[in-house]
Amino acid sequence: MFAYRLPIELTFRLFDVVFAEGLDCLLRVAIAVLKRSQTRLLSLEFEAILQYLNDGPLFAFYSHAAPDMMVRDSNQVSLNARLLQRLRRQYIEEMQRKLAEEDESNKLRTEHEQLKQECAQLRSTLEELKQSGGADSRQSLQLELDKQRDENQRLAQTVSELELRIKDERSTAEAQLKADMDQLAQKNVQLTIKNQQLEDGLQDMEEALVQIKMLYAESENQRELMTAKFENLKKALT
Fold first, then answer.
1. Would you state the pLDDT for residue 161?
2. Phi, psi of 194 (to 5 degrees)
3. d(CA 200, CA 194)
4. How far apart are CA 11 and CA 4, in angstroms?
5. How far is CA 170 from CA 176, 184, 208, in A?
6. CB of 28 closer than 8 Å to CB of 74
7. What is the DSSP string of 162-220?
8. Res 19 pLDDT > 80
9. 54 by DSSP, 3-state: which?
10. Is the backbone of residue 133 left (phi > 0), alpha (psi -120 to 50) or beta?
11. What is the pTM of this model?
């Protein structure tokens, strides 16, 4: 754009800046050019702005000014890197949203065309059926309906049989579970009784053991007394 609208000296000067600073300087140059025409652009309507940017004297000032004037104006333009990044992200998100909307629109348009074709095909089939004879068509439809009705009845009967089988199996399982629980309860009672009997027998054995220990201790005392008496008697005889 700058090469077509600017004098050759200013174009070469702009190329020097691009080679020295990179393509990022073009944004500053564009902003500087717009700032020179800011007052004029703000006073125009949208269509007039487009015409002014395309055919109007947008570069008239710099075309007659010194070549360094555009460079100086562009250097005075300060760009916020964070703002540019945020605007870039917003632009990318907006483009992605538009592409998604366009894809969705194309998808809906394709589905609409398919539906139109299906509708046309159905209309064609309907016309053929009308032409081939309504009686045969109704008879075919009636046969198909009877077939579907028989199939639905068969499926309903199968479902009823399955429900009855499930109900019987559930009742059998519950009865078996109840019998098993009763049997386990009886076994638990029997085990409890046996455990109590064993505890009672153990207690009796402990009491008998205590009595045996006491009798043993008493017999030991008597034996010691008899031994002492025997020793005394033996000494008296000697």
1. 86
2. -60, -40
3. 10
4. 9
5. 10, 21, 56
6. yes
7. HHHHHHHHHHHHHHHHHHHHHHHHHHHHHHHHHHHHHHHHHHHHHHHHHHHHHHHHHHH
8. yes
9. helix
10. left
11. 0.38
